[in-house]
TrEMBL record:
Signal peptide location: none
Keyword vocabulary terms for this entry: DNA-binding, Phosphoprotein, Transcription, Transcription regulation
Superkingdom of this protein's organism: Bacteria
Positions of the Response regulatory domain: 7-121
Residue(s) carrying 4-aspartylphosphate: 56
Pfam family of the protein (one): Response_reg
SUPFAM superfamilies associated with the record: C-terminal effector domain of the bipartite response regulators (SSF46894), CheY-like (SSF52172)
Name the record gives this protein: Putative response regulator FixJ
Transcription among keywords: yes
InterPro entries referenced in this protein's UniProt entry, alphabetically: CheY-like_superfamily, Sig_transdc_resp-reg_C-effctor, Sig_transdc_resp-reg_receiver, Tscrpt_reg_LuxR_C, WH-like_DNA-bd_sf
SMART domains in the record: HTH_LUXR, REC
Amino acid sequence: MSTTDTVVHIVDDEEAVRNSLAFLLSGAGFAVRVHESATEFLAVAPDINNGCLITDLRMPDMSGVELLRRLRDTDAMLPAIVITGHGDVQMAVEAMKNGAIDFIEKPFSDDVLIESIGRAASRAAERVQSGAMLEAVRQRVASLSERERQVLKGVVAGQPNKTIAFELGISPRTVEVYRAGLMGKMQAKSLPELVRMIMDVEIEATK
């Protein structure tokens, strides 16, 4: 997944600003979508799988800070950049606390904006790749038999084969066979890699 596959979503109530940013970023090779209000963007945000956001802090229907807060609360957060006017630094800091990865003060150069968008697009691409990897791990776990999952639970908990065997009422040798089988199905080259896979999936499930 490359940054050029990432769609940059521009949210600004001023048409001239939207058009100017869209022209600049399109010329720099980014795919662009424009939204004339925060409310309009919120309606489509949950369906965005690969994107980043650039938004003004001050808009009539909803501030950029409130937009970020709602995206975060609905688990639809994207790598976001906020554009601030002179004297809005305090608001920009608040935006960073609510998930923005960068803020740019007006007036700004084209190069500064493009560089910042590039970082946000990279972050978005990494999120997509990470999400795909987690989904692959979940599918591998789903492919395990009930007994293999029981052995996996013991392995991830750090239990030795003898303990797992005792709890499941099977022999240590049988545990070794199941363990080798699940390592293959999980495509894990080592025990630490297997444990990291499961931990990453469990951490994601708690978010």
